[in-house]
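Forwarding the complex inputs:
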Amino acid sequence: MRVGIDVGGTHTDAVLMAETTVVAEIKTATTLDVTSGVVTALERLLATSGAERGHITAVMIGTTHFTNALVTGRRLARTAVVRLALPATAALPPLVDWPDRLIRAINPSIHMCDGGHEFDGRPISPLKPDQLKRIAAELSTHEIDTVAISSVFSPVNAELEERAADILLAELPHLHVSMSHQIGRVGLLERENATVVNACLRDLADEIVDAFAEALRAVGIHAPLYLSQNDGTLMDAEYTRRYPVRTFASGPTNSMRGAAFLADLADCAVVDIGGTTTDVGVLSGGYPRQATGEVDIGGVRTNFRMPDVLSIGLGGGSRVATTPRLEIGPDSVGYELTDHALVFGGQVLTATDLAVAAGMADIGDPSLVRHLSKDLVRNGVAWMAGRVGELVDQMRVSAQPLPVIVVGGGSVLMPDHLPGVPAVHRPAHHAVANAIGAATGQIGGDVDRLFAITAARTREDVLDQARAEAVERAVSAGADPDTVEVVDIDEVHVAYLPGNAVRVRVKAVGELCVGRAATIEEVKA
Amino acid sequence: MTGMDLTVATLRDLAEGAAVLGTGGGGDPYIGRLLVERQLREGRRVTIIPIDELPDDALVLPSAMMGAPTVFVERPPSGRGNVAALRALEEHLGRTAAATMPIECGGLNSMMPLLLGAQLGLPVIDADGMGRAFPELQMETFAVYGVPGSPMSIASDHGDVAIIDALDNVRMERLARVMTVEMGGAAYICDYPMDAATVRRTAVPGTLTLGMRIGAALRTARERHEDPFDALTAALAGTIYTHGLILFRGKVVDIDRRTVDGFARGHVTLAALDDPGDQLRITFQNEHLVARRDGEVVAIVPDLICTLNTDTGAPVTTEALAFGQRLTVYAISTPDIMRTPAALDCFGPAAFGLPDPYTPVEQLTAGTQVGA
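Prediction (whole assembly, two chains):
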């Protein structure tokens, strides 16, 4: 049996799953002290289900701790940045576009060195070990113990980042090293930014992983621990210590994947309606479609993998305006629904009141909305369905209509038919879709870099190589080799260069191979 | 001098306006904007001067980045190559430049002369040679009105430099393209050296301030929750880009993209929201070339065809086009200097292999209705 836990800002949800069945689900409050909230969730889950600790084979946790640390600028480590590129890139040093607030928080030590590659793999300039030894001495003096290393075109050739890491580690064996080729794709500043974010979270990552491990131990569960990544796959505890940035945005991803799992659909749109907003994402082959382009997190521009989600201000607490024309949201009474909505004796006409009046929901006192005009109720419900239908339509990637899964506390706002949508699903257990998404995560590996096609190396050779690398990465991350398959291939030819440069993205995923992963004892060691 | 000093705020407006003038291509001005912003924050100045500012015989050396924007975002400049290119051409000519200017006001290359201007304290003339973005070096009003592109200089990030003195502008483009690849896929150039009197005769005037004006209009419309397209049309009124109008509004229903000879070619098809049968199809080669509504040409190069986000007015490049996007296709008429027979020979429909004749967008759209 697997345990899935979603640690959100206010609630912690947990589920116990046997194969594909939800055995038990619970909701508790998130605690300031990481360990005790998880302990409470696990104990209640075991008590509710009566399951034996020894039957739990893995625990998967999705957490917002790292995102929150960056957004609030708290508990970030002092970080060094080493860029291998000179003479190239000198006009734009690392962290050039960061908000002052975060610069102050990580108080960076910035170093630009020789190194880097051209797009075709030629070196820009050779690495100079002495430069790196001098940096090591400086980091030692200032007691900085985490570093981000970037090198131009490292997604094509990672050799220099690895050599620089070796040189620094030889001088400072306790240094935490984050290398950009492990974290981002082509686009130096964005990849470097994500790498620095990862580096400044390394201390916190140790703390959080230790706290989760401690919680499992306190409850007496000896199964291995995994964390959810932003693309819906899992990483083990050791990997999380090295790549905490990969937990960013795992919440919406888990919610979408959990919903799809409950409805047993692999290609669909997921509409998550809360008190204030509605998020719409699309799953293709069971995984959320990734956003193309740059993603801004806490004011830092990055290019790592994030689910493509569209949001509008429509939720259960949305205020309904009738003049000059009917409009619902974006203003919302939010969590104060039970004080202000008509069905709770309040004075504000909300989206929830319309749903109750239309007989779609049984919330509060229906007699308090009986006076609403039939036209207003009908038009209001149609307006909301129309807006959501439009969002779903906008998220489609082909002319093929997509089925829709509706989840979240505000899901009662949606009628059983949406314009342009072939089927609307409302699965059971949808309130804990996040935790189910965590529990059902798989293991993935991906490749995204430029390849040169030559007479000796055809396009087919290049694609074969990229596929093999992605599969290898999935297996080395803990996937069962027998179940790994390539789920996505995308190739983009690079404009303004002769027809030999192609950027290839490949993603492979497989089932978690429990035997391969570290146990809690190993994690603590 | 009567020039204006660039501020971080006007630079940001210009970067967005330049992306609109990039007409789907030209490269994202983002990195260029960061480069200039850093110069300004370090206390250096960029002075933009009107086209009539300099004496007739003052030497002007236009400057640009040449190559793949994809390379540029991975290997931002050293700040050495662009300076080396300018110094090499000065040395070759035995004269000192009084100013630089863009060869291309659309996209990334609107920013590169500003960087050079900040680094060297060189004024930047408010004019360019394309009036938008085009894919090749010979597609310049300078060339159209008899200015040879050669001698040109080209430099790498390391500071390697070469002078190309080609027999004609097309040969120059080809030689420079080969050298760009050897220089790592992105290089820095100065070409079309000329005196200020020739700039006044051959350049498209006022295009940097036009970019600022467009960017400011879109920004203020967003801040005030006003219609960005009304703001855009109002911003163009009174400029030499007299007509700005919505060609079509709809959603992307098909994209066909391929790379041919190093260019991103393809088509994008939009359907009106209320009538899926009402469609607009745009053909692009890095930049948008021609828009056909239900088979009929409604706008064609060199007039500008811009794909903008329907909600925000933000420009969407051909690379970022995606199925389902709500876009407004907005056309901007080019000034007369870009519509003469000689100009159309250089960068009109036939120069891109299109069979259709050039007809000004304001004639093509007279009396037509915009898609809902």
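Residues 3 and 48 of chain B are 5 Å apart (CA to CA).
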